[in-house]
Amino acid sequence: EIVLTQSPGTLSLSPGERATLSCRASQSVSSSYLAWYQQKPGQAPRLLIYGASSRATGIPDRFSGSGSGTDFTLTISRLEPEDFAVYYCQQYGSQGMYTFGQGTKLEIK
Amino acid sequence: EVQLVESGGGLVQPGGSLRLSCAASGFTFSSYWMHWVRQAPGKGLVWVSRINSDGSSTSYADSVKGRFTISRDNAKNTLYLQMNSLRAEDTAVYYCARGGDCGGDCYPPGVWGQGTTVTVSS
Known about the structure:
Largest sheet of chain B: 7 strands, mixed
Number of helices of chain A: 0
Largest interface: A-B, 27 and 24 residues
Oligomer: heterodimer
Distance between the termini of chain B: 40 Å
Distance between the termini of chain A: 36 Å
Order of helices and strands of chain A: EEEEEEEEEEE
Order of helices and strands of chain B: EEEEEEEEEEE
Shape of chain B: globular
Strand content of chain A: over 45%
Largest sheet of chain A: 7 strands, mixed
Number of helices of chain B: 0
Number of strands of chain B: 11
Helix content of chain A: under 10%
Shape of chain A: globular
Radius of gyration of chain A: 13 Å
Number of strands of chain A: 11
Structural class of chain A: mainly beta
């Protein structure tokens, strides 16, 4: 089973700043089947990025994903007030299994 | 509008059973793989199970294997999760989510319902 470790656990930034979130896998993620989600309190998660770098429908271009193999990054180029939330990475498809990282909380500084 | 609506959650005693349902609308349900994902109070997301478009292939997280069964009725546009031998640690909000129509594990859960709450307690 692939284990995903996200860092940092909490990231404190101000609106307008750049956010960089990391997701490291315990083994290589095949075909870059790596996704990123945003979740706000009381809401269902929202898919942001799939295939490591493709934005899902309707996602603003300030969100970008990169990486391959075992190291992946979600970058938010310029934080908007609505971007403060919890972010999860997920690998999908490895032997039919899907696993999430433990999450990074992005909070207002 | 694509929509997923879960139901069937509630309070159940340890060792009991519950069946969750997820009604889908606004898309061709029979073309898409489907998932269940759960989230314990104050905790992160945990993938539970997925099923392919015709129901012939399923997979489960180790924590629920042998106790939970995912199924679907494409004629009714409905996804199910039969949960048996429930434990306190199964307490969570359960989300159903739509996967891909690519014929494989090639797209993550991209559309989510609002969830249904399961509480396992005596």
